[in-house]
Design brief:
14 strands; about 375 residues; seven-stranded parallel β-sheet; 14 helices; alpha/beta; about 40% helix
Length: about 375
């Protein structure tokens, strides 16, 4: 049970719900997360239901009627949806890859095909349910990352961005994985976009934060047998790694069904999967207050670089954060992105938060020596 400064109470378990009824005989200012409340006998007519919201809860029709008459707001899950808009937790890859009870496809595939059928012009109810779902992801992320009143997270989030098509045999796949492993071993919470390529390398390396470099190198050899995510059996290699090394470190992926044709990687323990790609992109960068590492990529990575630069330029989320570019040739000569960012940041505080390197150890050293700095108003 959680109470904020405005005395609004968030109730997340049935035990908390019953305790609130017994102690206060009131649900005033409560928001009740999805739970089965059938079979609860209570004099509902006498309960204060001012400013009460039930999200996707189940109860008998008679109780539902009494709650409605008492002024409570009830959001009921629509039975035809293949996803739960009001879910109270993040996903795991095991949940997404499990077989859907009404289909031979995985849960992830069923949701993706459902989303794709009206991707560009959803019906109003569908659009509302998608937004409620994505808000549920926001809320679950806040629980996992533990924000304080300034917007800082207890977990020291560092994002790693880069190309989705980078092969598992690419030198930068290995460099990224080694970087992520170093960060995880030194207390950082690694975050990626959750897909293949550099994103998989980031989650892989973070997962191996509980193992030694030699064991990560072994995992890279196993993965290299199916190097391209479009190959048949690509995910089988990831399962083999997980079977051999089952006790990885916690880390986070934030993918989207907008790019649902790309497989979500298996090395993130927590997955915040969104329908809206624009929300997902913004959240992905916004939570990484301890820095973002950019490995080589294409247009999507370039977009993320300038989106992160804009957040730093204007201090959008209350802190200046490091931007580390992993690949001197790519960012200083092939694309000139790093010199351009230096010009953009000239005279600004975040100029000192920019760094260019080829070495995982330098990434770690720079982040350790450049913690996020609070924006002074």
């Amino acid at each position: 049970m959680k109470k904020n400064q405005r005395n609004e109470i968030s109730i997340r378990t049935k035990t908390e719900f019953l305790a609130q009824l017994e102690q206060a005989d009131s649900l005033k200012n409560c928001t009740i997360s999805p739970m089965d409340l059938t079979g609860i006998s209570w004099p509902w007519e006498s309960i204060c239901l001012e400013n009460v919201t039930f999200l996707g809860c189940e109860f008998e029709a008679e109780v539902q009627q009494k709650l409605n008459l008492g002024g409570a707001v009830l959001y009921i899950k629509q039975p035809h949806l293949p996803y739960h808009p009001f879910r109270a937790s993040l996903y795991t890859w095991q949940e997404l890859e499990s077989k859907h009870p009404d289909d031979k496809k995985t849960v992830d595939e069923v949701i993706y095909h459902h989303f794709s059928s009206s991707k560009y012009n959803p019906h109003l109810n569908e659009a509302l349910n998608q937004r409620i779902h994505d808000h549920a992801m926001d809320d679950a992320l806040r629980e996992v990352l533990q924000f304080d009143e300034t917007g800082m997270t207890q977990k020291k989030c560092v994002g790693i961005m880069g190309g989705h098509s980078t092969l598992r045999t690419d030198p930068f796949f290995r460099t990224t994985a080694l970087t992520a492993q170093l960060l995880a071993k030194n207390g950082y919470y690694v975050v990626s976009g959750g897909g293949p390529g550099i994103m998989e390398a980031a989650n892989l390396g973070a997962y191996f934060g509980t193992y030694e470099q030699g064991e990560l190198e072994d995992a890279l050899k196993i993965l290299a047998q199916k190097a391209d995510y479009r190959m048949e059996g690509y995910q089988d290699q990831a399962r083999e790694v997980l079977s051999k090394y089952p006790h990885g470190a916690d880390n986070l992926a934030i993918p989207t069904w907008f790019y649902g044709h790309e497989p979500s990687n298996y090395f993130a323990k927590n997955i915040a999967k969104y329908f809206s790609n624009s929300l997902r992109e913004d959240i992905l960068l916004a939570i990484c207050l301890y820095g973002v590492v950019f490995a080589p990529g294409s247009a999507g990575t370039t977009q993320e670089i300038f989106q992160d630069a804009a957040q730093n330029h204007y201090g959008t989320f209350g802190f200046y954060s490091p931007m580390v570019f992993l690949g001197k040739e790519r960012f200083s000569r092939q694309t000139m992105l790093y010199p351009l960012l230096q010009q953009l940041a000239a005279g600004r505080i975040y100029q000192e938060f920019l760094h260019l390197t080829d070495q995982p150890e330098e990434v770690l050293s720079f982040l350790l020596n450049h913690p996020p700095r609070r924006v002074e108003n």
